[in-house]
Amino acid sequence: MKYALIGCGRISPNHIAAAKNNNLDFVGLCDIDDKARNDKVIKFDLQNVHQYSNYHEMLDKEKPELVAIATESGLHATIALDCIAAGCNLIIEKPIALSLSDADAIIRAAENKRVKVCASHQNRFNKSIQKIREAVEKKRFGRMFYGTAHVRWRRDYEYYSRAKWRGTWQQDGGALMNQCIHNIDLLRWMMGDEIEEVVGMTDRLNHRYIEAEDFGIALVKFRNGSYGIVEGTTNLYPKNLEETLYLFGEKGTVKVGGQSVNRIEEWRFADSFDDPDAIKEEFAENPPNVYGYGHNPLYADVIDAIIHDREPYVNAAAGKRALELVLAIYESASQGKSVKLPLDHSSTMNFAGRFK
Fold it and tell me: What domains does the chain contain, in order, with CATH numbers?
């Protein structure tokens, strides 16, 4: 299967490694930054991969069957629609887009062209998360009461200065949209997906050189009567602390933590089907960074979805749901009141100038 990657930034090594591990025919690598592109060629021994600074040219010449988009977030939708028009299946880094209208356009275009689109929420493939999802689907929790998602990380001036698009409303959003959206996706997915109401607060407490928030909290009311709590920040001193997800139900309590929710730290169920200590020992991965190990199985799933003409495990609609929850928190925080879902229209650009 012919594969190409657009974007050679911070997350690109995970995509390159996953493409190679899944034996894709890597035909094209694209970035407007020659140095970023050449660095990846040298680091990953991609001398036989054709390099491009213009993705239109790459799509025309290489005709890839699968393309991964790993550019700045504000370009995801435009590039995705061009790739879909060229008949390419897609893996789109989070967030799938920065507006609901763009997310809807991607979904419609993919349906019309009969191509597969995957939102790269790779943490859904963590062994720990898969084990918890199994418990949810088997209804081991009984009635769900509430869940909490915490991302307590640090991003400093050096991080933002390396890529000027970071922290801007036009190309990124803030801590919730960039750093926290993976865990926000997991919370929504685990708690039943359908949301009734969101109350949020956001602020820029420490990073005066960015446009968007570096701190956000929210209360989420799900339609099934359960609740969610979101806390996210990039203000931690002196380094990343944790990313954790808690689920509390009538008959079960689970905590998953570590750098990227790769470690089950609490496992308590009334049914006593398994040994909590054995579960915690078995599901305690220690990835080298916050990106975890999920890209490899995500790629394997997308390849299988293309071959067998089915939806990817994390499809474009799932990507839109994660985006919608972040935008709902932004809307609530900016309006100073609760927001009902589903949202009709929203975009990060609605909040330009908010923290001036």
Answer: 2-123+295-314 (3.40.50.720), 124-290+321-350 (3.30.360.10)
